[in-house]
Amino acid sequence: MIDHIELLRLIENDAKLSLEDIAVRLGASEEEVSKEIKYLEDEKIILGYTTNINWEKQLPEHCIGMIEVRITPIKGKGYDQVANIISQYDKVSACYLMSGGFDLMVIYEDMSLRDIANFVNQKIATQEGVLSTTTHFILKKYKANGIMFDAADKDDRQAIIL
Amino acid sequence: MTDGTSKLSEVVNKVPPSAIRRFFDLANEMKGHVISLSIGEPDFVTPWSIREAGINSLREGYTHYSPNSGYMEAREAICSYIQRRYGVSYSSKEECLITVGGSEGLDLVARALINPGDEVVIVEPCFVAYKATVMFAHGVPVVISTKEENDYKLMPEELEAAITDKTKYIILGYPSNPTGAVMTYDDLKKIKDVLVKYPDITIISDELYCELNYLDSKPSSLIQFPELRDRTVMINGFSKSYAMTGFRIGYSVGPKSIIAAMTKIHQYCIMSAPSTAQFAVIEAASNGDSCIEEMRNEYNHRRRVLLKGLSDAGLKCFTPYGAFYAFPSIEGLGIQSDEFCERFLLEKKVAIVPGKAFGECGEGHVRISYAASIDDIKDAVVRLKEFVEELKNA
User: Fold this and answer.
1) What percent of chain B has a predicted confidence (pLDDT) above 90?
2) DSSP 8-state secondary structure symbol assigned to residue B355
3) Where are the alpha helices (DSSP H) in chain B?
4) Is B40 touching A (CB cutoff 8 A)?
5) Who among B21, B308, B351 is closest to A161 (CB)?
6) Which ipTM value was assigned to this complex?
7) In angstroms, what CA-CA distances link A9 with A3, A4, A5, B125, B212?
8) CA A34, A38, A41, A46: dihedral to nearest 10 degrees?
9) Span B5-46+291-393: which CATH code?
10) Which of A6, A155, A160 is closest, CB to CB, to B43?
């Protein structure tokens, strides 16, 4: 029996692992692994497989805005309607309902600061029910998705008799 | 004599230099081109919260000697860890000593217990320091050679046969370096049944790899038998489980009288274990359980990858359930373990360790460490397969 949490942790760290690799590491057969992954996909526990990309390196102008949005909940629908409308935009990479001083945290990625400013002004601030927005720009990434951006990747252990 | 050895003590001259020193020098010279599966230490960096605790102690100016036995807070954290993981309680005040790595504990125990000529039972293949520390203390090592067909476990009848009226203590090291063997609670119970018949024999249990056990989520030990608890010294440390080898910090727990004798030697020779490392230990022993679990899971994955690779290479290997070593057999290839390792290093650029380094009965085997990245392990076993095939076709 494959432990789902162990399987998920493994592929969360490396989605490129082959079925064979996963099976060997978990001490299971490829068929079992394939069956469990299908189950987790069907249950929407696994939502997709993405790649961690350091976009700043490829596209130096690329930037990310974190937009705090305060909204008036709509009767019967709460915050969901506004959240759904905002989430539909492809360049919105995440949208969360938050506790605290504002309601939605919207993470928006685009080619320049100007693009993000336009998105906030034209698409969010004008949305019915939106009271105010506060936009923060990411200046530098140190760690994202569990990955350190400047991590040393070396093994400098010296041989020793043990 | 012109080489100066005549000036040295007889006992130092009698302890042979490590047979694999030259081999390691060779591997180090070739570093950069060599995959090393030879090193007995984790490749993980110490978990950050533990490093931070050490750094913070420096920032706050804790740069002085600690009490000889170690800071009380560190001893309390250790004793509470042992209570939590083993279910055995020790007095942090009188039954716990913080040492410079587990190795210092081995030396202290030998000097605290041995009178010249006393016998010490050593279970091979084993960590290279057991025999040497006994000899330095003028003891006589009596070797039990465990067998592959018994999964390198110590059998009760083997123990019984090795005991004489000169036996002072026995050293057990499970989970085992170099074999990866573990002894379960039921295995240890059979050993306990022999030992209760010999109440004068002290038991030294080296459990540095206790957390790297892939069979059971909690360690098993002779200290868990109430009949043996007061005549057993457990030598343990943070190097392997917490990836803290460079901190050089370990501990011994055991009966008050022996710990007091060990502390006497320690206070004259060492004074106290490094203070910075002790602050790191407080964090490790108090809050490190989840870190070691993550590392254990990762080692377990690597273990399976290595075993699969060994099987693909056609090498027979009993299934190791502990530490981070496999100990495959190279018998039938017509080559001794040291020549096998030297040629494998020179021809295929992979460093592993000859089994003979861990005792005569380790001949015919090699120790492969899987404390390395999965990519390196996979690459190494492909080269191993090529090498074994070339030997078979030669």
Assistant:
1) 90
2) G
3) 10-14, 21-29, 48-59, 72-86, 101-113, 129-136, 156-162, 185-195, 226-229, 256-269, 275-287, 289-312, 337-348, 374-393
4) yes
5) B21
6) 0.76
7) 10, 8, 6, 36, 19
8) -20
9) 3.90.1150.10
10) A155
Kindly state the average pLDDT of the residues B363-374: 95
Give B-chain residues touching A157 at CB under 8 angstroms.
Answer: 36, 39, 41, 43
Give Cα B328 to chain centroid, integer Å: 18
pLDDT of res. B31? 64
- Among A31-40, B23-32, B293-302, B378-387, name the one with the lowest average pLDDT: B23-32
pTM of the model: 0.89
CB contact under 8 A, A10 and B28: no
The architecture (CATH level 2) of B64-288 comes to 3-Layer(aba) Sandwich (3.40)
- Give the max Cα distance, chain B: 64
> Rounded to 10 degrees, what is the CA torsion of B42, B238, B177, B246?
50
The ranges assigned to domains in chain B are: 5-46+291-393, 64-288
Give bridge partners of residue B122 from the DSSP assignment.
Answer: B143, B171
At B143-168, the pLDDT tens digits run 999 999 999 999 999 999 999 999 99
**B301 part of contact set with chain A, CB < 8 Å:** yes
Put simply, whether B93 touches A (Cβ < 8 Å) is: no
Cβ contacts of residue B260 below 8 Å, gap of 6+? B94
By Cβ distance, the residue of B43, B128, B351 closest to A161 is: B128
pLDDT for the residue B18: 72
Distance CA B358, CA B351 (A): 16
Selection from B87, B56, B91, B59 nearest residue B72 by Cα: B91
Q: Nearest-CA distance from B354 to chain A in Å?
A: 12
Residues of A with a Cβ under 8 Å from any B Cβ are 6, 9-10, 24-27, 155, 157-162
- Interface membership of B209 toward A (CB under 8 Å): no
Residue (of B303, B282, B145) closest to B215 by Cα position: B303
